[in-house]
Amino acid sequence: MPDVDSLPHVADLADYLAPSRTALIVVDIQVDFASARGVLGGYGVDMTEAEVVVDRIEEMIAAARKAGVTVGFMRVMTRPETDSDALRTWMARRGTPGGEAICRIGSGGEAYYRVTPEPGDIEIEKLAYSSFHGTDLDAQLRARGIDTLVIAGISTDCCVDSTTRDAFHHNFHAFVVSDACTAYGDDLHYAALKAMSLHCALLTRTADVVAAWDKA
Predict the structure, then answer these.
(1) Is residue 28 annotated as a catalytic residue, yes or no?
(2) CATH number of the domain residue 14 falls in
(3) pTM for this prediction
(4) 80 to each of 84, 103, 127, how far by Cα in Å?
(5) Each residue of 151-166: pLDDT tens digit?
(6) Is 126 a catalytic residue?
(7) How many domains does the chain have?
(8) How confident is residue 201, by pLDDT bands cut at 50, 70 and 90?
(9) Catalytic residue among 28, 32, 157, 166
(10) Of the four, 17, 39, 51, 106, which is 20 to 30 A from 80 by CA?
């Protein structure tokens, strides 16, 4: 499989990521998705790469706060009664009934993992993949005059991908931080980044985002 670095990346971001018009969107850095003690970790999923991704996201959060960039935290928050019929049916038909039970409110799995919102940040609770679907994220961003999103999180092929595509559909300029995202499989990570790069976003790296905001 080709290396992610073979995909086109933008390094010079100073003209693109003006702090007053940009938000850092942190997608689903939660116990169930990123921690060894969460649901996926309990099934034996290796969270080593997730820990590295959270390190990089923490670095970008610090740079964003220093530069005055809005930070938004996206979080899946579910209850049994909020599971859609489509979700339950899909899970049953693929032979994994009950597999939708992730990020249940009150379980601890829905909690943020190693990241903490502060007053003034955007917080979005969602039921599914896209951070825009069924939420007021668009309105909150517009109210702040934001037109550009720097997107990072878990997983590249699911909630990061869905959020990025919807950002494009909502007329935001989308940048996906390739080394601050991960998927549960290198093939999925690469394929998702390639698809987003082809269709709806520019790829960049953590160090280049931090450098742009350090100069702001």
Answers:
(1) yes
(2) 3.40.50.850
(3) 0.96
(4) 9, 11, 11
(5) 999 999 999 999 999 9
(6) yes
(7) 1
(8) very high
(9) 28
(10) 51
